[in-house]
Design goal:
Elements lengths: L1 E2 L5 E2 L5 E5 L8 E7 L2 E2 L2 E2 L3 E6 L2 E7 L14 H10 L4 E10 L9 E3 L2 E5 L27 H13 L4 E2 L3 E5 L7 H10 L3 E3 L2 H10 L3 E11 L10 H10 L1 H14 L18
Parallel strand pairs: 3-8, 3-9, 9-15, 10-12, 11-13, 13-14
Antiparallel strand pairs: 1-2, 4-7, 5-6, 7-8, 9-14, 10-15
Length: 274
């Protein structure tokens, strides 16, 4: 093992990671390896490493096994640091969301193109807190890697899935669902979907120059749009129904990831340090 320029200990490289629920690790082919990684920010959840189409892939359950951690308690810094320490250069993530845009219906897949940060719970959002770590102002004009976005879109198209090639994700603190008044406001902001986990996950990946792309599965219309009471059970049920589509989308996306990175993500720290 060696240390790279950011002081992260690098093991044998696993270049691609998938981040989402625990069940998505089922796409991995043997030999299977399991790791819990110590980071400067705490331990990672159990990471499962295998192969997909001959490529080594790590699967990290964002909320831990059994959905142990609510959105505001997820250790995002430990998760992303742990993946970087494995040599990960690309992260493909999935999330469950509510729809703010009536044209995007439950069961649809949205390939995220931008985000709005409405997180107010004080969760750490940077690796660079000053002092020895310095200060970094990372560019988030287009926060999602264009190469990964293209791969997801092409994969969804090939699988004939109901998908939207762009979508703005507004991230709230959770764990409560949003009020109808908040959803009205979010529509004015230009949000398409609402969830609780993209910030700071995507930002932290960018700070480590890791390509990050994500797709969301719409599980329900958001508060005030849906006439029904919002429940976690309906979210879990629809994600269960869509699990096979999610797995197929991951497999097809991974096949389409280029061997070499030709996107801006690998050079994000140039000019970003304060």
């Amino acid at each position: 093992m060696v240390k790279n320029t950011k002081g992260i200990i690098m093991s044998e490289k696993v270049k691609i990671a998938i981040v989402g629920g625990y069940d998505i690790a089922a796409i991995l082919e043997p030999p299977i390896e399991k790791k819990i990684i110590d980071t400067p920010y705490g331990k990672s959840p159990e990471i499962i490493i295998g192969t997909v189409g001959g490529k080594r892939v790590a699967s990290l359950p964002r909320h831990g096994k059994g959905h142990a951690y609510p959105p505001h308690k997820v250790n995002y810094r430990a998760n992303i640091w742990a993946l970087k320490s494995l040599g990960v250069e690309r992260i493909i993530a999935n999330t469950a969301v509510g729809s703010v845009n009536e044209k995007m219906k439950p069961g649809d897949i949205v390939v995220l193109s931008n985000f709005i940060d409405f997180v107010t719970d004080g969760r750490p959002k940077t690796f660079y807190d000053g002092g020895e770590s310095g200060v970094v102002h990372i560019d988030c004009t287009e926060p999602y890697c264009p190469e990964i976005r293209t791969a997801i879109i092409d994969a969804a198209k090939s699988l004939n899935l109901s998908y939207h090639p762009t979508g703005v994700y507004i991230c709230t603190s959770g764990p409560r669902f949003e009020t109808a008044a908040e959803i009205k406001l979010f529509k004015l902001f230009g949000a398409d979907v609402v969830g609780m986990t993209q910030v700071p996950e995507v930002v932290l990946a960018r700070e480590l120059e890791v390509c990050y792309g994500a797709f969301s599965v719409i599980t329900n219309f958001a508060a005030g749009i849906s006439p029904e009471k919002l429940t976690h059970e309906e979210v879990v049920e629809l994600m269960r129904e869509k699990l096979e589509d999610i797995k197929r989308l991951y497999i097809e996306t991974i096949k389409r990831i280029p061997e070499e990175r030709n996107c801006p993500c690998k050079d994000l720290l140039k000019g970003a340090k304060g």
